[in-house]
Amino acid sequence: MSDYDVVIVGAGQAGAQAAIALRQLRYQGPVALIGDEDELPYERPPLTKAYLAGEKSFERLLIRSAAFWQEKAIDLRPGCRIVAVDPAARRVIAADGTSIGYRRLVWATGGAARRLDCPGATLARVHALRSRADADRLAQELPAAQRAVVIGGGYIGLEAASVLVGAGKQVTVIEAQQQVLARMSGTMLARFLEAEHRSRGVSLRLGTTVDCIEGRDGAAHGVRLTSGEFVAADLVIVGVGIVPAVDPLLAAGARGGNGVEVDAVCRTSLPDIYAIGDCAAHTNAFADGARIRLESVQNANDMAGTVARSIAGVAHPYYAVPWFWSNQYDLRLQTVGLAAGHDLAVLRGAIDARSFSIIYLRQGRVVALDCVNATKDYVQGRKLIESGATVRSDLIADSAVALTESPQGEGGPSTRSFI
Ligand SMILES: Cc1cc2nc3c(=O)[nH]c(=O)nc-3n(C[C@H](O)[C@H](O)[C@H](O)COP(=O)(O)OP(=O)(O)OC[C@H]3O[C@@H](n4cnc5c(N)ncnc54)[C@H](O)[C@@H]3O)c2cc1C
After folding, report:
1. Least CB-packed of 33, 162, 269, 307 within 10 Å?
2. What integer is the mean pLDDT of 39-63?
3. Whose CA is nearest to atom 27 of ligand 1?
4. List of residues 6+ apart from 28 with CB closer than 8 A
5. Does the C-beta of 109 come closer than 6 Å to ligand 1?
């Protein structure tokens, strides 16, 4: 017999939103939200932004208050790590050996911060930044630290660097690729951000790899590069991506590898088991149907809605334009769409003015925008991506011309012309 109609494993962004969405859809059955952190569900983005900067309290990160979960009869079970799934018995097994039965299981476990596998990776004063506990540990050490090395020039690393610079620290960012944000963005945006970080005093080391982290008395005191150079550090932050937390599901037989594979309504290959958020490998309409994982609040929230509708009996395929944001210094970066595979990048506005957009086109169609302090472009450009409009690159480059659709636009088909 099942203990719950719906068991959600992972009480982060996607898991919490799935529980909320179920109740919004008036789903009445017993729902458990199980998470291995000792916290109420909270939002992670501020961990490298306002929370790390000490400008936002943890309470303001909470997705909902403690009272909300009670009112909605969502059985919140913090501090509970699920280590195995038994799909035949329809039970999940916790680390303490107890098991919990389900009728439907939603796997929403995100990922663990990827660790370096070089010597010194587990020394004290080497930090990941994935959870509140990580951010608190780092914040505790910050006052005594003067020099920080950030390994990884992705969003996490760059945001952390900007907060640390704001706190008066001497920061070195080490990135193995020849540009920052290599996985996510084009060169134009990368070069702009690199210049911004350098102008704030960050020592940016591109195309540079780490040999080891050197320690003294069990704690990191610097990073040795493969070139032999040594960069002294009072603390090290490692931001080199995540490993999706899907081992128990894969061990139970779910199809996957880098994440667990899901179909259009977030079902895995196992009966009545769904997966959502960072750990779900799905075919995305905005990636030309390629199977990808997205690590974003947008994806977590929209998949939460998709799974809740599936469970509540009003299934609707996942279809949502990807978007993401990042704050670094006084820059608000907003990204919409997926730039991978673009054949043209058009600059709109002036980089020197620190308010511009880069519009990515594939065969004349707008597939993505990176907007820096340019929210209007973001809002208008998003509609172009949704409608699959084709554009004239000379016109979209002119920031005096609005990115709005032509009046005859009907929405929908991917062949319509624009401007
Ligand atoms: C520092 C930081 C900054 C970010 N900034 C942005 C941003 O600016 N914009 C943006 O769009 N996105 C940002 N993201 C990404 C965004 O937060 C994630 O994409 C989102 O949280 C994914 O939601 P999720 O529910 O899939 O995973 P998570 O929110 O990570 O939740 C998963 C939960 O499951 C728990 N769990 C894992 N395994 C188990 C288990 N076996 N048993 C029980 N519980 C388990 C985890 O501990 C965690 O609490 C940021 C992420 C981080 C870490």
Report:
1. 269
2. 98
3. 110
4. none
5. yes
Q: Is 39 in the pocket of ligand 1 (CB under 6 A)?
A: no
Pick from 75, 92, 79, 88: which is nearest to 30 by CA?
A: 75
Q: 10: CA distance to ligand 1 center in Å?
A: 9
Three-state secondary structure call for residue 128: coil
26: helix, strand or coil: coil
Distance 109 CA to ligand 1 centre (A): 8
Residue type, 190: A
Q: How far apart are CA 269 and CA 323, in angstroms?
A: 27
Q: Are strands 273-275 and 219-225 parallel, antiparallel or unpaired?
A: unpaired
| CB of residue 335 inside a 6 A radius of ligand 1 | no
Q: What is the pTM of this model?
A: 0.95
Q: Please report the pLDDT score of residue 1 as a whole number.
A: 57
Of 119, 72, 137, the residue nearest 308 (C-alpha): 72
**What is d(CA 189, CA 336) in angstroms, rounded to the nearest whole number?**
14
Tens digits of per-residue pLDDT, 144-158?
Answer: 999 999 999 999 999
Is the CB–ligand 1 distance for residue 245 below 6 Å? yes
CB atoms within 10 A of CB 419: 18
What separation in Å is there between the alpha carbon of 130 and the centre of ligand 1? 7
Q: Which atom of ligand 1 is nearest to the CA of 113?
A: 53
Using DSSP, state whether 70 is helix, strand or coil: helix
- Determine contact, residues 122/290, Cβ cutoff 8 Å: no
